[in-house]
Each structure stands twice: as structure tokens, then as C-alpha cells.
Amino acid sequence: MTSRNRLSGPLDDVAADAGHHGHPDRVGFFTDTSVCIGCKACEVACKEWNAVPEDGLDLLGMSFDNTGMLGADSWRHVAFVEQARPLGPGAGPEDLGMPSFALPGDGTGAETRTDFRWLMASDVCKHCTHAGCLDVCPTGALFRTEFGTVVVQQDICNGCGYCVSGCPYGVIDRRQHDGRAQKCTLCYDRLGDGMEPACAKACPTESIQFGELDELRERADARLAQLHGLGVAEARLYGRDPNDGVGGDGAFFLLLDEPEVYGLPPDPVVPTRDAPAMWRRAGAAAAAFALAGVGAFVASTIGARR
Amino acid sequence: MSANGHGGGRRAQMFQGGRRREGGGEPTVVPDPEFRSYYGRPVLKAPVWEWKIAAYLFSGGLAAGTAVVAAGADLTGRPRLRRASWLGSFAALLASMWFLVSDLGRPERFHHMLRVAKPTSPMSVGTWILTAFGPGVGAAAATELIPARWRRSWPARLLRTLSRPAGLFSAATAPGVASYTAVLLSHTAVPGWNEARGELPFVFVGSAAASGGGFGMLCAPLKEAGPARAFALAGAAGELVASRVMEHRMGLVREVYQQGHPARLRRASEVLTAAGLAGTALLAHRSRAGAAASGLALLAGSALQRFGVFHAGVESTKDPRYVVVPQRQRLNRG
After folding, report:
1. What is the mean pLDDT of chain B?
2. Chain B, 92-151: which have a CB under 8 Å from a chain A CB?
3. B300 touching A (Cβ < 8 Å)
4. Which fold does the domain B51-330 belong to in CATH?
5. In whole angstroms, how large is the CA radius of gyration of chain B?
6. Using CA atoms, how far apart are residues B207 and A110, in angstroms rounded to an integer?
7. What pLDDT does residue A93 have?
8. Would the CB atoms of A169 and B43 count as touching at under 8 Å?
9. I want to staple A136 with a disulfide (CB 3.0 to 4.6 A). Which of A95, A166, B89, B191 is the partner?
10. A236 and A300 share a domain?
11. Would you list the domain boundaries of chain B?
12. Which residue numbers in chain B have pLDDT < 70?
């Protein structure tokens, strides 16, 4: 019998591990960013359903992204990455000729494609198998639901902010003027009524797919194989692997470039993984502290008697 | 503005003013690795904790150090060292409680920490360590403050009987108080704190011992303060060594400890702690003024160490390089 380290590594049944009995299958998101059109319906639907306050009307100058990042008041964030893809090795400047009346995109086929592409991705809380936020919450406000998702109980949270530093993805934050931590709930209230989350419902291209996690993983594997077959070698799955540093994500992604290009950490690790080692070090330090204290008195008392 | 970022990470940040380079951008020792990022924006959230948590790191360590000195003084017949240290420990404990509760987003809900005992949460573990530590310190301090005319009354005699074992119990939990805060910081995704996880406990307990011993040197007469001097010596030496080792063993993120405001705080801490250590060894046993100055230097050095480590961690979350570069290197190593 193998003993799995339940602080990290693969965990087949997160809800049962958290104490739920007879719970439904684990659900999550598969976000296929290759079909995202950057419409931000997900951001709007999420804010509408969850009554999330507005968090600043900024023009950030980051393509069409004026949300910036996930936060207490942004539970879905659409990232826009404009990339000048080089045509190939040794490609020099291209003579575009005189302007014409042809509209961009009039022609079709590979010969009309220019060296430009636009990556768009809807980022969200990953609802990790081993969630850094949940592990460090000292009040029990953050808990694992029967669906395998991670939710903050707003009547318990006292705003200590430890979860903010515990998240390796930089998702959760403390809401200003409210004091409590806020993040995506995977529409826990909708799940209870058998509905899909607001963002998945609103997404017009089914970039955001909601369902049972096992089925989503199969779908993602098939989609990845399809893209690789079409020659899109850069396509990759992010957060799908249960052997990664957080035990796999409940909300995972198909990306078309490295994760850091989208603002995601390349190799996130739940801090709890190293907890036993940290406590052993603290124990050794505590022992040294106690020894120094006792030793100081013993030495001084012996010295005084001489 | 492209997020393509081949080597554009650092340029993009400077263009957007996202990363401050103090001193006009002197070159770092480690060559700047290329990395990609999303418009140079941070990946992580900065800690929401403010100066009060850094202050708590100091006051908690001071409470632990003075509790150990007080208990030892109680057992070895050093009444003035005992009295000063119990009162100091209690004052530091009260300050600690105020720092912790007032930093909360909803301070009136501080008692929600007592709902659970979670081993995976250093803050939960610490809550219970402090709960075990506090009452004994309170009882011992109260005993020290009983006015003379009430000392023979039965409540006072009961308190005096209970306060010695209660105080000893608190002193036994003091090593936990002094060391758990290192795990509190390291058990996060903050690169500047997580990377230091091997050595930070030793830095913090050394700092706690130095401050506890330093307080004893400041407040107690020379002939009773011997153990405080010895404790302070051990703590200061341990802190100085552990602090250097910690910085040396970190990877790229050691930059946050070597540049800017955190570096200034830590250099000042090192100077003061070293001066306090020298004073303790050479002056403090024969000059009350020397003892007091050494004690103050050690207290100041301990406080600056805590603030330096705290601010270094906060800085390390603001630049995506400290997240992306080490993780990408780890992936490439396979």
C-alpha cells in the first residue's frame, strides 16, 4: 500500500479528503484559450451574478486588457497578448507596397497571413487540488465544497490576509473597505441548483467549458492532440497534470504559449508541500533557543558560585 | 506595448516603472536572466500585511525572550531581573495582541481564529501557541505588580502560588513563540520568504534571544544580569551568522535583501547587533551604562532585522522575475 503525502501530490478525491460523504463528482473549468475571442462576456457575467463591485475604470495600455489581473473585485480576467511572430529564420523587413483598397482579411489562406497573432485567455481561480489559500486559512473561512471547489465563507473571514500570500497564482485578495478575502466561488450558489457558472454560460465560443473534471480532462487531451495534429506545436495544457506542484487544478487551461506570457507562474507549488521540513527547522531553532536560555542560567550560576 | 518579452521583461518593467532600481541601476552580481512576463506585471499579490505585522515579529520575539529570562531568574534567585523581564514580557505581549488584531481586515472578528486548529496553517498553530503562552505571562506580571499592602491577602497569596508554575509553563512555550513566526512567513508563495525557509527560524530565534537578553541588560542591575548577557550573546551571534547564511543560500531572490530599503534596514540591523554583541562581551559586565547601551543596540538591531525581512518579502512579490525565472529554471532542469 502506497502512502500518499496528502499535503501535495495527486489526490483522487478532494471532497472526501475534506470530509464530505456521498458527494457529487468534482467539477471545474477547462478554458480552451485557442477559441477565446476576447469578448469579456465572462468578466461581465461574473460581476453581474456575484454583485462584484467595480474596481477602477482604468486604461492600462495593455492591448484590450483594462482589468489588469485577478483580484478581490475581478474574479475573471481576460488577458490580451499581441505577439509579432517572426516569419522564419533570416526573415528580413517586408515591403508592404502602397496602401490599397483591399480590406484586411480579404484574402484567405496561409499566403495572406502576416507575422502577428493575438493570444486571449480568460484567467480565473484555479480551485487547486492542494490550495495554498485554503491550507493557510486560520479561521476555517476557506473550505472545500462537496463539488471539490474552494470557497470563502464571508461570515467567517476576518481579513487576516494570509490566503493572499498563500496563493502561488496570485488570485485571491482582500477587498478594500470591506476587509474580507474574495475570489471566484465557481458559482457555488448556481452549482447547488444544478446550473453551470455564469461565465461558462455566457461564453459565446465555449472557450470556458464547465463539467466534471475527469471528463474535461479527457476533452482537453483530445483537443490538444487535435491541435498538435494541425501543426500548432506550441499548444499545451496548463494545470491538468495531477503531478504538478498543486496536485492539478480544478480550473485548467489550454495555452498557446508559455504560461508566463499570460501572467501565470510556470511551475507553481503549494507552500504546504514543504511544511514538514519547515516545522522541523523551526523545532530545531526552538530547541537551540531553549538550550541557550537554560545554558545561560546554568553557566551564570556556576560562574557566580566560583 | 508587446508582451512578447524576449529580454523584454526587464525593459518592459523599467518602461512602466514597475521595478525600482536604487542608486541609478548599479549592476547586480548575478547577470540579468531573460524571461517573459505579461507586460511586466507581477504574478503574485503583494502581502496585505502592513508595518504592524513586522512590529509583531519583533514584539513577539521580545515577549518570548524576556519570558525565558524571567523564568530562569525566578528559579535562580534574581528578583530584579525577574521583575523587569516579566513586566517586559507582558508589555510586549499586549503590544503583540494589539498589532495582530488591529491589522486584521475585520478586527472585531479576531476570535474567529479560535474556531479551528489547523496544522497546515502556521497562523492557526501560532494562535494556539500564543493562547498557551499568554496567561502565564499575565499571571506572573500581575504578581509582580501586587501592591505591598495587599501581598498577604489570600487572593494575592493564591496568585503568587500559581504564578511560578504558570510562568514556567509560559517559558516552556516561549521557544514556540519565537520560532513559529519564521514558518508563518516562509509558508507562503512569497519568494523572498519561502526561499529563506531553511535559515529564517534561526534568524528569528537568535533575534528573540538577543532582544530578550538585551532587555534584561537594560533593566536589571549588573550583578543579576549575567544570564541575560549570556543569552544575548548567544542570540546575537546566532542571528548574525544565520542571517548571512540565509542570504548566501538564496538564489536570484537574494537581490531583494541586497537592494533598496530592505537592504538598508538589514545592514543597520547587522551593525547594531554586532555593536551590541561587542558591548555585551566587553562592557556590559562592568558598566551599567555600557550594559544599557548594548541592550538598546540589540533591541534596535532585532527590530530592524524583522522589518528588513518583512519588506524584502513584500518587494519580492512585486517583480515577476522572482517567480518566473526560478520556476522556469526548475522546469528546464526537469
Report:
1. 91
2. 103-107, 109-110, 112-113, 115-116, 118, 120-124, 127
3. no
4. Formate dehydrogenase/DMSO reductase fold (1.20.1630)
5. 22
6. 66
7. 57
8. yes
9. A166
10. no
11. 51-330
12. 1-33
